[in-house]
TrEMBL record:
Residues 1-25 form the signal peptide. Belongs to the bacterial solute-binding protein 8 family. Pfam families: Peripla_BP_2. The keyword Signal applies. Keywords: Receptor, Signal. This is Ferrisiderophore receptor Irp6A. Residues 65-378 form the Fe/B12 periplasmic-binding domain. InterPro entries: ABC_Transporter_SBP, ABC_transptr_periplasmic_BD. Transmembrane segments: none annotated.
Length: 410
């Protein structure tokens, strides 16, 4: 009996060990399976992230901000209508590709460019306008209604939107935006802005082509200008006749171009702010060597009663009209005391070069006016026509530069 009990005990112990071993093996298998599943999950997550990263795009704008999207943008809002000056460079046949709305400034600021663009790009007539971001008449709700992947705004928009609170609202709503600049500091930011837009619209090659040409032309002018001892003091008369005498700029837009062209922008010393007004009396006291007025096709918008006209320049302006309106500016009280017009150093340039990637053409013309012998080989008119052939959806026509020949007209 005792022997049977011993045998039975041994069998029970063996069974217990076997059951325990099986249980441990099962637990180990479960652990291994769980760990394997976790590894597989992490691997899939890593793969998904890698796949997502492949589609992600990151942009760096002129403010030094970086903006990352999950994929290349398909719906873009141009905060400034004049942004089409640049998008035309990228694709002159389809300058509004991926654009779902644009600012309302183009038709008022550059009416003859706008008219030609509307004729060349009929679909532009149906493109919704959003207003002006810098003036506070654009709402987040309006922007969201277009379901944009990205908003392109100018440096002026950015500064204004910071002040009026629009940026905070856009950030809170998750609206992505990048900043371009052709107006505040064109020499620093033109190629950066074109390159940025090339990335946004997937036209990097075209952007590089333009930037290479721009850099070659600008560097050529700057190199020659840097070697000149004579730096004629030059007054930029901004929107002459449209604005009271005499609006000008300080170390920005066309003022920068004057300095780069071998002149000395008078506004740099007369103003403490980026832009402002100088009285005729102050101008007479300073007696600039040259005066460059900016002009456009603003007749329909001008409602001031004074006799002084604006300088008429643009796509529908002939040489005679440009010349006559430039001479008309001399009716400004006190201008008969200025020596620059009497010395045939009184000029006008199309105003919109101040906010355009084609600013290099104005730079060339400034250099040719201020230093005719040193820049006698430059041909800004030819460059303007070639730029239109390559980068604008319509041909160049009209008058964009004019010189008043007071001596010849005396």
């Amino acid at each position: 009996m005792t022997t049977k009990r011993v045998i039975l005990g041994s069998l029970l112990a063996a069974s217990a060990l076997a059951i325990s071993a099986c249980s441990n093996a099962a637990n180990d298998a479960d652990t291994i399976a769980t760990e394997a599943s976790a590894v597989a999950t992490k691997a899939q997550e890593a793969k998904d992230k890698a796949d997502a990263d492949k589609g992600a795009v990151t942009f760096t704008d002129v403010k030094g901000r970086t903006v990352t999207l999950d994929k290349a943008p398909e719906r873009v809002i141009l905060g400034e209508g004049r942004g089409v000056f640049a998008t035309s460079i990228l694709d002159k046949d389809h300058p509004l590709d991926k654009v779902v709305a644009w600012g309302s400034d183009l038709k008022n600021a550059a009416p003859t460019w706008y008219a030609n663009f509307m004729e060349a790009v009929p679909e532009a007539k149906d493109l919704p306008e959003i207003g002006n971001m810098a003036k506070g008449d654009v709402t987040v709700e309006n922007l969201l209604s277009f379901n944009p992947d990205l908003v392109v705004m100018t440096a002026d928009h950015y500064d204004g939107a910071q002040t009026n609170g629009l940026l905070d609202k856009m950030d809170a709503a998750g609206i992505n935006y990048v900043v371009t600049d052709f107006r505040q500091h064109p020499l620093e930011n033109t190629t950066k802005s074109v390159a940025l837009l090339g990335e946004v619209f997937g036209k990097q090659d075209k952007a590089k082509q333009f930037n290479d040409e721009w850099t070659t032309k600008v560097d050529a002018v700057k190199k020659t200008a840097e070697g000149l001892d004579d730096k004629p003091s030059t007054f930029i008369w901004r929107a002459a006749g449209l604005k009271d005498c005499c609006s000008t700029v300080n170390k920005s837009n066309l003022g920068e171009l004057v300095d780069a062209a071998g002149g000395k922008n008078l506004g740099d010393t007369l103003l403490d702010t980026e832009s402002g007004d100088v009285t005729a009396e102050k101008l007479i006291a300073e007696q600039p060597d040259a005066i460059i007025a900016t002009g456009g096709s603003w007749a329909a918008k001008k409602d001031k009663p004074e006799a002084v006209p604006h300088a008429n320049l643009g796509y529908d302006t002939d040489e005679a009209t440009a010349q006559a309106t430039l001479q008309g500016l001399l009716a400004t009280p006190g201008f008969d005391e200025l020596k620059a017009p009497k010395d045939d150093e009184f000029f006008a340039v199309w105003h919109q070069f101040y906010d355009s990637p084609f600013n290099y053409i104005a730079l060339e013309q400034f250099a040719k006016w201020l230093h005719p012998e040193d820049f006698k080989d430059l041909d800004p008119q030819k460059d303007l026509e070639q730029a239109h052939e390559k980068y604008v959806p319509f041909k160049a026509k009209g008058t964009f530069f004019v010189k008043d020949n007071v001596k010849d007209n005396a």
